[in-house]
Every structure is written in structure tokens, then in C-alpha cells.
């Protein structure tokens, strides 16, 4: 297994790392650090695609709600309001690095359909011919509800990684990796997992307040990605400054080797 020089990297940002710890709104410091990490990876010669959650959370403040509602129509409305806010923030931050954002909104149905998936792939590849462009993908929440219900941006990121033929999928979340024992975070994460099927039981249903997927959904996404030949890492997005080091093989995280 080699994590030393992956060229095609999918970074998945969960809601929990895009929002403030004590307020249901985007965290500008976090967004800046994450965009810095993207810029550093690109400067190192990697090709980077971002799968970003956070649309619903970004819509809460403009709609004047203090917490994530449960009804699907309001969640879809929130995503419609929050998505442009999020893209605007990314565009502003990337500009400091001479980069620009490209938005792709897709559903699982799109990726299950051969022709549409092929169009997504060719659009992505054309975008990546321009080194200054950072494609940012999210679920098209206003037309699909399974995503909002199950937090399937984890699954979406593994599907994108497979479709694109990524070398590495990094799921960046609020935890430092797959914790050995969620009740003893001081023990840290498992550093390497040889067989993801054997560690699903390590994940609890617990998740952050605004996140929807939780660790189980991440491990399922890892299963899908490693079966498709993509190496995976689960790491803390709250320590975005370590992302380049993690890509080089260091840092604190959980690594899963692709099935060859
Ligand atoms: N074994 C485990 N190791 C780490 N986190 C776990 C584990 N089991 C459950 N979790 C929970 O999963 C959460 C991450 O999922 P989630 O809140 O959905 O994040 P995101 O918004 O990044 O998708 C962690 O904050 C933690 O509460
Ligand atoms: N598409 C939704 C996110 C759904 C989702 O998967 O959220 P998360 O579990 O935080 O990755 C949004 O942008 O709010």
C-alpha cells in the first residue's frame, strides 16, 4: 500500500467540520483552513476534488433558525439557501490562492445512470484540465431526499472517487479517525485497518448535532471505495493543517488500503 504520492484525491468535508462547535453556522476559520489545505495539495501537484456537505447548516442563519429542523421540505429549502452561501465562501477563500470553485450538484440516481454518470465524469475531467479550478460536489438536495435522510455524502464521495478513478478518498470529519473506543477518545484512532468489514462494529450510531451520516455511514463508504480500488483515510477535518502530511503518510488518522 502506498500513500506517498497519490495524484487524484477526493476530500470529503462533513457538516461537523464546516460549522462552529457551539453555534449552528459555518465556521469561517475552518473554511479558510480547509481551503488552504486544498491549495497546498494542488501546489504539491495533486489533483483535488472536494465533496462538501454543509448546505443545510449554511442556510440556518439566513432563514433565522437556530437548529436543524427534521421535516424534509424545510431541509431542502435550507439547502437551497445555504448552498450558494457555501460556494460564495469557498470562492472568496480560494481566490487568495489564485484558485476558483466549480460547483457540481448530483444525486445518487445520476451516478447510477450510465450516461449521466459518464457526463459527470467527463465534466469533472475537463474541469481538472484547468489547474486553477477546484470542483466542489454536493448532493442536489432540492431534488433528492434520500441524501438528506441518510447523510449519504459519505457514499456520494466514494462513488465519485470510483467514477473518477481516484487514488485516495479522505473522509474529513470531527473525529480523529476510527476511534478504538468511542468512550475513551484519549486512546486515539486505529491507525491501519486491513479489512473494513471487521471494524464496522467499532462505529456507534452517535454523530454530531448537524451531521447526518455518522461513523457507520463513513465505514460503508470506505467499504465501497476500497472494493473499487481506492485507498481511504478517515481523519480530523478540525486539524486541516495536517492534511498534506497525512497524504504523505504521516499524521493522525485511520488508513484503509484498497483491495487490489
Ligand atoms: N468509533 C468511532 N470513532 C470515531 N467517531 C465515531 C465512532 N463511532 C461513532 N462516531 C461518531 O461519528 C461522528 C462523525 O460523524 P458525523 O457527525 O456524521 O460527521 P460528518 O458531519 O463529518 O459526516 C463522530 O463525531 C462521532 O460522534
Ligand atoms: N447535502 C447535505 C449534507 C448531507 C450529509 O451527508 O451530511 P454529513 O453527514 O455532514 O456529511 C448538506 O449539504 O447539508
Automatic annotation (TrEMBL):
It is found in: Cytoplasm. It comes from the Bacteria. Substrate binds at residues 53, 141, 153. ATP binds at residues 12, 212-218. Its main location: cytoplasm. It catalyses: L-glutamate + ATP = L-glutamyl 5-phosphate + ADP. Residues 7-236 form the Aspartate/glutamate/uridylate kinase domain. Pathway: Amino-acid biosynthesis; L-proline biosynthesis; L-glutamate 5-semialdehyde from L-glutamate: step 1/2. Keywords: Amino-acid biosynthesis, ATP-binding, Cytoplasm, Kinase, Nucleotide-binding, Proline biosynthesis, Transferase. It is an enzyme of class 2 (transferase). It holds the Pfam family AA_kinase. GO terms for cellular component: cytosol. GO terms for biological process: L-proline biosynthetic process. GO terms for molecular function: ATP binding; glutamate 5-kinase activity. Its EC number is 2.7.2.11. NCBIfam families: proB (TIGR01027). Belongs to the glutamate 5-kinase family. PANTHER family: GLUTAMATE 5-KINASE, ISOPENTENYL PHOSPHATE KINASE. Catalyzes the transfer of a phosphate group to glutamate to form L-glutamate 5-phosphate. This is Glutamate 5-kinase. It comes from Prosthecobacter debontii. The gene is proB.
Amino acid at each position: 500500500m502506498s500513500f506517498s504520492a497519490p495524484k487524484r484525491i477526493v476530500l470529503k468535508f462533513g457538516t461537523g467540520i464546516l460549522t462552529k462547535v457551539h453555534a449552528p453556522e459555518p465556521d469561517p476559520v475552518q473554511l479558510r483552513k480547509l481551503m488552504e489545505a486544498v491549495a497546498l495539495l494542488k501546489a504539491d501537484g495533486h489533483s483535488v476534488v472536494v465533496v462538501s456537505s454543509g448546505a443545510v447548516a449554511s442556510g440556518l442563519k439566513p432563514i433565522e433558525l437556530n437548529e436543524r429542523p427534521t421535516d424534509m421540505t424545510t431541509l431542502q429549502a435550507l439547502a437551497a439557501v445555504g448552498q450558494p452561501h457555501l460556494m460564495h465562501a469557498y470562492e472568496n477563500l480560494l481566490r487568495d490562492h489564485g484558485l476558483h470553485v466549480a460547483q457540481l450538484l448530483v444525486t445518487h440516481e445520476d451516478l447510477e445512470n450510465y450516461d449521466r454518470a459518464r457526463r459527470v465524469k467527463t465534466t469533472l475531467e475537463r474541469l481538472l484540465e484547468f489547474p486553477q479550478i477546484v470542483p466542489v460536489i454536493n448532493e442536489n438536495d432540492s431534488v433528492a431526499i434520500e441524501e438528506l435522510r441518510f447523510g449519504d455524502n459519505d457514499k456520494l464521495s466514494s462513488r465519485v472517487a470510483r467514477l473518477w478513478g481516484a487514488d485516495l478518498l479522505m473522509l474529513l470529519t470531527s473525529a480523529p479517525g476510527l476511534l478504538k473506543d468511542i468512550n475513551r477518545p484519549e486512546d486515539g484512532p486505529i491507525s491501519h485497518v486491513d479489512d473494513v468489514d471487521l471494524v464496522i462494529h467499532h462505529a456507534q450510531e452517535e454523530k454530531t448535532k448537524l451531521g447526518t451520516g455518522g461513523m457507520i455511514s463513513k465505514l460503508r463508504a470506505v467499504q465501497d471505495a476500497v472494493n473499487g480500488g481506492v485507498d481511504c483515510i478517515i481523519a480530523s477535518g478540525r486539524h486541516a493543517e495536517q492534511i498534506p502530511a497525512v497524504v504523505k503518510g504521516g499524521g493522525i488518522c485511520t488508513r484503509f488500503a484498497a483491495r487490489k
